[in-house]
Fold:
Amino acid sequence: MALHRIRRIPPPAAECWPPALPAARRSGIESWLTDPGSLTRRLRRSSARFELRLLRQGPARALRDEYPLLGLPQGRKVWRRDVLLVADGVPRVLGHSVCALSALRGPWRLLRHLGVKPVGDAVFSRPQTRRSAMRVKRLSAAHPLLRLARRNGRIREEALWSRRSSFVYSGTPLWVIEVFFPAACRT
Structure:
């Protein structure tokens, strides 16, 4: 599959996470947080065995701060997908993706049939896709994605670094958050 270089677009006004730099410099995993390429591809290259574990996919509620990014009212169901990216048997990243349910009948219809294929394979194979600037945040123990990571990734950390950006295709955003486990830094 050919991977395309994705053009950059500015983040929407509703984006409340801080810019990747300088925050990523304090993380100790700057190269992971600021890498503009496919995270899936990077994990595949750095491990002998890569797998994606599907935790959830389908209609669900978004995170509170995702509704303004999607232009939807609070509480409306969205398409949500949560996965673990596992390299050499060790969970490395929790992936979380959301888009409007209506996008599954339009520009993001390919998401309905991903199964255990990574979202990155879909977005990086479409040359018309554009990506917003990377944003970075250290998630605290109270954040729902950190709780999900702790439950499914066999980790005990009280805070984990994450990055967020949107992939826009035909004017419709797909938001992706990647939460990095301590093991991610060692690959």
User: Anything to note?
Assistant: The CA atoms of residues 45 and 187 lie 10 Å apart. The longest strand covers residues 50-61.
